[in-house]
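Section: Multi-chain targets

For targets with more than one molecule, the full set of components is provided together so that the structure can be written out for the assembly as a whole rather than chain by chain. Components appear in the order listed by the source. The example entry contains two components.
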Amino acid sequence: MHPDTPQDLTRRDFLHTSMAGAVAMALAGSDALLAQSDRDAVVAEIARQHDATVQRLRDWIALPSIAAEDLGYPQGAEFMARLARDAGFTRVDLIPTKGKPGVFATLDVGAPTTLAIYFMYDVKQYDPKEWSSPPLEGKIVDRPGVGKIMVGRGTTNTKGPQMACLAALHAFKAAKQKLPINLLLVCEGEEEIGSPNFGQIVFKPEVEAALRKSVGIIIPLGNQSLDGSAEVNLGAKGIVELELASSGEKWGRGPNADIHSSLAAHIDSPVWRLVKALDTLVKDDGHTPAVEGFFDDVKPLSPQLKEILEAAIPRRNEALTKKALGVQKWIADESWHDSLVRLVSQPTINIEGLVGGYTGPGGKTILPHRAVAKIDMRLVPDMTAKGTLDKLKAHLAKHGFGDIEVSMTGGYDPTSTPPGSRLVEAMVRTYKKQGVDPLLWPRLAGSWPGATFTNEPLKLPAGIFGMGHGAGAHAPDEYYLIESANPKVAGLDGAVTSYVDLFYTLASPA
Amino acid sequence: MHPDTPQDLTRRDFLHTSMAGAVAMALAGSDALLAQSDRDAVVAEIARQHDATVQRLRDWIALPSIAAEDLGYPQGAEFMARLARDAGFTRVDLIPTKGKPGVFATLDVGAPTTLAIYFMYDVKQYDPKEWSSPPLEGKIVDRPGVGKIMVGRGTTNTKGPQMACLAALHAFKAAKQKLPINLLLVCEGEEEIGSPNFGQIVFKPEVEAALRKSVGIIIPLGNQSLDGSAEVNLGAKGIVELELASSGEKWGRGPNADIHSSLAAHIDSPVWRLVKALDTLVKDDGHTPAVEGFFDDVKPLSPQLKEILEAAIPRRNEALTKKALGVQKWIADESWHDSLVRLVSQPTINIEGLVGGYTGPGGKTILPHRAVAKIDMRLVPDMTAKGTLDKLKAHLAKHGFGDIEVSMTGGYDPTSTPPGSRLVEAMVRTYKKQGVDPLLWPRLAGSWPGATFTNEPLKLPAGIFGMGHGAGAHAPDEYYLIESANPKVAGLDGAVTSYVDLFYTLASPA
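Its structure, encoded as tokens over all components, is:
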């Protein structure tokens, strides 16, 4: 998933899940029975193909594409295209962009319903030294209480879940069963740098035209927590990632190269300047954004979303969440309830990183010529990435910090999907079919570039979907669950099944 | 030299030097004539030993001792002891400390005058990737307009100048000339981490007793700028180097490990907390210390030092200094004169480095659990390192930032040496003998641990001394000048000569 989808973090809050009551199969009539038998034939193939699927995933893990390092291009796109072809997509095109190529693929079976699927073939950077097994090896190890996991960069973010989705198609092929819906695959290779060229893929005329005919778009993810619960989000915050750089060169004061720190007695410091500029961005409470006009476009939660939120909050466990996050107190010592309302509804300005001058062990007596703060701002409707960036720039200029360079490195608008859409309804129904009563949640506090689909001009429903589990996105020892130790949590085969079932569910409206 | 001695920075201000008028040798009588002939015999040996001296320096460069990395111990101390023995010191002791061992050596020729010499055998960290030739190779390259330079870590800071000092002793040996003074060598291996255990060397009873009999202590340095000028400092600022760390663990708020940045909506940020704490340390002008009581012990420059400063300022060149430092404006747009007064007289709080969260290329959407500011504070008399550190801690506590960890990594009090001391007088006289009219300067804005000698209980004069030139201390491509392209700037042999002459000068009071 996206850098900003906190799947392995917020997901760790061990949602209470109503597992009581088996799911009643409300099938009636011969068509339904036939469909059930077809479905069983497909599902039976999943286990038979298990080893092949694992090997295919491992091959993919071995070939990282990392846009920030210009590593694995165009090989990553070509491999992605081959994976799509092997899974049964009939038309598979590489889509050139100003950055890294995307892939667009179609599988038209003449069904009345079309589902779009979003893939990313790129992965986050990694440092092998921090890993317990080589990050490109895809080693399968046993994790007590979790099960057999595959450790590797991209296993959960997002090659594992995507491979589960492709394996569903392999299962249909092996079972010689016709897909119940048509599929579109829209794939990019720059997700981890903020999808700067994704619009060039989505709005290519034939891609856009094809997407318009779909019921919406899913983003495959191992969506289950370790207690088996899953969440269906009706949107996600937007994000602006940026760097604020203070430098002697731009400022016209201070040095234009690092100089000896004794000179701080009569030469200005670009680092202090950065501190002073940063200080104006949030209030003294250390979190409330203080950028002028930052809240102007913040729309309160709708009554419908409020209702959904209030229904969901009692299902979330404060103590387990605090423990999992290593947190003792919420902002302003708020209650769990108020803190969750804040999480869903408030925009943020966060410092991801500070880097300036000497950053190694010990000290070094320099007056640095430059310092950088890496910032992300999370946006709620109706804030926009561009509008918020402009406000930040205007704020800095107004406070006399117009020389601080603002470089946006990625971002997009908030995304929302109507709770009553056919896609959301089908996702909920499919989870229930797997025995999971999903938590309907108004808005992910993280971000994914769904706005490309949910905003004008497409206005498609879009949502993250998938049984299964993984963790460690962007971190060392990232993993994806292959064989689960807990029957409530799907392993790889269960994840594949969830995609098979989603396709069937979409084909037979409730 | 010390991390804080900005030899290659402030020294680059190309002091105007009165080269007019050859130095008159005011020698009279047969003793003086005899001394002159002895001296010439010694100096004649310097050129003969040139290649051996270069090789000895290169061998030393090849063996770095870096306390911050625990590299090269005890080998560095043992090598240092061997160098001292080879140069003629008769008693050479390794002095164990709680950290790295020091070396104490004596060479008693029964002369009435004893000079102490300070050495450091450790060097600063380095990253070979940043160097144009391997930092331990000591490669000699030609730098147009400068001459043949030796490139390597520690060449100018401070193995090169120290080797020049030792080579002076080799020259006396080779010329079979008796040293005109007795020598003491006090050497440490932790200078680059702030000399935390230096007191255990200096105040070892027999070392302290020996030092009490000396006229003072010199610190060898290639003290010439590229125009040939040299400076005699009558003191130096003190320093406190420290780290300020904000963390969720200590704070009891925010996370205790990096978590997904979306959670910044309801979890406090230790990075923002660091920014807010830092903001209180200096005024909104971005430089004036705002720590309560910071200026309480600041003593104005004495009338004598003011006079020395006013005499020196007209000899310093603003345009060349600005160019060399890459600086367009002084703090508060002050005049050159006022800016130099500020440089000499004002204490500072400088940020050497900021490091927190994600510091690599691009962004990473985390809410970091910890952030650190590396700080140095420069102290003027009568501030003390301990007192200033205490004030900083009290300030943070008073402003509600008592959880911010303050870790002092090194530092010492300011140091001052009386302008009329025999050592200062001899240094000035020796420079003049080399054809350089040195700039007498009230106080180095940088720091060196002279307070150990100049404060109670020893109260010895102490000063940096040496002809010659080097640059790049702590930086890549550090170098020391071996053969000068400019007759006004001494190469290695000229530097050796300056120590020979200092010894003779000290033996014959003005």
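The mean pLDDT of chain B is 92.
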